[in-house]
Amino acid sequence: MKILGIDGSGLVASVAIVEDDNLVGEYTTGYKKTHSQTLLPMLDELSKMVELDLNTIDAIAVSAGPGSFTGLRIASATAKGMGLSLGCPIISVPTVDSIAFNLWGQSGVICPIMDARRGQVYTGLYSFSQDGTFNILKAQCAVDFHEIADAINDRGEAVTFLGDGVPVFKDLIAEIIKVPYRFAPANLNRQHASSVAALGEIYYKNGECEPAADHRPEYLRLSQAERERMEKEGKA
């Protein structure tokens, strides 16, 4: 089975091809360019490097959110357009789940944190069983950091943090986390399309996919512009 993975949920832009549990190729960059400038050229370059015939793709796995509203729209539009053109189904992979999947086989609790601004994080809690089963202890959500910290402390287990929220909340982590903790290294602490594709294959085999025409990003909360509009209208 051949799956194209796409992630544009944060500063990192990433595309990957995974076939039958093998990573054929991945192109990932965290440089300050918009995903509209990077995703399609990256995909084109990757396709040339691995001599990929796009018509042989079985499904497209995309990091469907939460994350950057603009980045999610670009990545989802790219996946949707390709899916419609190639007749491929879309696998909507929750962003926080895919980040946690970077640490496959890790012991203890895994806590991705993405900076959602205003003191909030996009986060969740995960673990792996000894047989490699991916466990969702707390589904991805948008919460105040103190809320996820309380959940971690209540579990009483060692935790590994990763994600772009780590630099933002590192001092607060040191202040309020009461269990042993550590941070994932640079090669594992951001979004990777290979994880989106690998986890997407699991979801696909469980029947969790959709026609390209039905795909929509999952933002988890309103955009800043929508929040400001509601505040002006007295609805927030």
Q: In sequence order, what are the helices and strands, one letter per element?
A: EEEHEHEHEEEHEHEHH
Q: What does the radius of gyration come to?
A: 18 Å
Termini gap: 46 Å
Number of strands: 10
How would you explain this protein's 3D organization?
There is one protein chain. The protein has 2 domains: 134 residues, Nucleotidyltransferase, domain 5 (2-Layer Sandwich), CATH 3.30.420; 81 residues, 2-Layer Sandwich (Nucleotidyltransferase, domain 5), CATH 3.30.420. The chain contains 7 helices and 10 strands. It has a 5-stranded mixed sheet, sandwiched between helices. A 5-stranded mixed sheet has the order 8-7-6-9-10. β4, α2 and β5 form a beta-alpha-beta unit. α3 crosses α6. It is globular, with a radius of gyration of 18 Å. It starts with a strand and ends with a helix. About 4% of the residues have low confidence.
Give the structure's gist in a few sentences:
By secondary structure, this protein is an alpha/beta fold.
List the topology elements.
Elements: E1 2-7, E2 13-19, E3 22-29, H1 35-49, E4 59-65, H2 69-86, E5 90-94, H3 95-101, E6 109-117, E7 120-128, E8 134-144, H4 145-155, E9 159-162, H5 166-176, E10 181-183, H6 193-205, H7 224-232
Helix pairs in contact: 1-2, 3-6
Essential attributes:
236 residues; alpha/beta; Nucleotidyltransferase, domain 5; 2 domains; 5-stranded mixed β-sheet; 7 helices; 36% helix; globular
